[in-house]
TrEMBL record:
Taxonomy, superkingdom: Bacteria
Species of provenance: Streptomyces malaysiensis
One Pfam family in the UniProt entry: Glyoxalase
Domain VOC: 5-136
Name of the protein described by the UniProt record: VOC domain-containing protein
Length: 144
């Protein structure tokens, strides 16, 4: 049997340069690929936390010919509302990561909060995409 693994996940973004600054400067991620294909008017932009693993493709909300103007505007609006999906990140110390990222300018939706599954917080990227940051602990239904 062949091996299949997750290589990349994707977020729609309103501005690739703004997204690139957020993920590299505020989150401290590295650029895995930044390739512009002039003939297609397309930029393949991938970022990831240092150290390997799947990358996140920062894909611009498409316009013509993929989507008509109305559909593109609707998708852009849904992304801004956080309906574009969620990225789940894991940390070994949620409080320390919260403090470090806050110092870099990340604006969190809530402070680290004890949950039955661990300690959890969330923030959004400049386009509105949801990102959850969790310190996974042994499940405890009484932790809150």
């Amino acid at each position: 049997m062949t091996t299949i693994k997750i290589a990349n996940a994707q977020f729609w973004v309103h501005d690739q340069n703004e997204a690139l600054d957020f993920y590299t400067k505020k989150l401290g991620w590295e650029v895995r690929a930044d390739v512009t294909m002039e003939a297609w008017n397309f930029r393949w932009l991938c970022v990831a936390p240092p150290g390997g693993g799947p990358a996140l493709v920062l894909m611009p909300v498409p316009g013509q010919p993929m989507l008509d103007e109305t559909s593109s505007a609707q998708l852009s609006e849904l992304v801004a509302k956080g309906a574009g999906g969620t990225l789940f990140l894991e940390t070994d110390d949620c409080d320390a990561s919260y403090n470090e990222l806050s110092a870099r300018g990340v604006e969190f939706n809530d402070p680290p909060t004890a949950q039955p599954y661990g300690i959890d917080t969330s923030f959004r990227d400049p386009s509105g995409n949801n990102i959850r940051l969790t310190q996974v602990l042994e499940f405890d239904p009484n932790r809150h």
